Structures are given as structure tokens and as C-alpha cells.
Amino acid sequence: MTSVHRRADRRSPLVLEVLELGHGAGSMREVSRTVPAPADLGLEVIGVPEGSDIDLDLRLEAVVEGVLVSGTAAVQLHGACARCLRDIEGAETFRLQELFFYPGHEVEEDERQIVEDTIDLDGVLRDAVVLELPFTPLCREDCLGLCPECGFNLNDDPTHEHEAVIDARWATLADLDVKPNN
């Protein structure tokens, strides 16, 4: 199955030239650079803020089938705790590894190809970061969340309580002074 690969925008900081690696196995190049984060790099509750720094440390190796990219991407995460809605911020490092096939190779739909002697790391970065982010990020493992009645953050006072709520249909009976029969 041949997949359609679009032309890479050479102005993008996530597009790398691989011409000097040649088409033979054995050559290698290391790349370290800081690039701005693309838009929508994350989930709705947690992600990498657009334009924030991503530190890439990569190794590009020419192999028989194409160019193997491996390394890390260090990012700053920002989001909200799924239980108490407090802001979450922190640094995280994600591992990247992807084989980009030379043109003319039969590739599957989800495989990547070298286009005009360039590789586009946008998809690789998205796969590495987004697939590793938690669906329910927590500010801490034992987060108590919010009070279901008033929205108070239970982490601030774990003993937070409300008076027992009486069902309005029975409120009149609570006012009666009923004595048990003996």
C-alpha cells in the first residue's frame, strides 16, 4: 500500500534536512535544538503550551530502509487536576523513535517517509507526547477532589462537612414533636 505524503514546510523548525546522510547505511548525525511547541500538542486537560520551548536531543542514523530518528523531547506541561481543578505544571521528557523510509519504499499508511530529502518531526513529536499524557492528570496521587455539594477543595480541609440535608418533602415532619408509643 502506498500512502500519500505531503511536502514538508522547510521553514518549520520540526523539519530536518537529511540529504548529507546519503542513502547508505552507516552515517549518523546528532541534532540538539530548541524549537517552539506547535499548537494543540496535548489533550484538553493537559498539554504543552503553544510556543513554549521543546528541547530536542536527536540522533539521525542512515539505515538500509531509510533514516532512524531516536532521542528525547523535553517539554513543559500545563494543565488542570481532574479532581480538584488546580493548575498542574511541570517538566517531562519523552522518548522519540521513528523510522522514515526512503522514497520508493512501499510503506503502510501509518509509516513515515522522507520527502524531498527532509523529515517532518511534527507527527513523531505528537505521537510521543500525546500518547503518553494521562487522561486524568492529578496534582497528587491522593488528591481528594472537590466537595460534591459546594465545590470546596477537600485538599484544603479534609474534614469539610455539611449538615445533613433533609429532603424537602419530609421537612414538615421534622418540625413535629412526635413521641414514640409505649
Automatic annotation (TrEMBL):
Superkingdom field: Bacteria
UniProt cross-references to InterPro entries, sorted A to Z: YceD
Pfam family, one: YceD
Protein name (record): DUF177 domain-containing protein
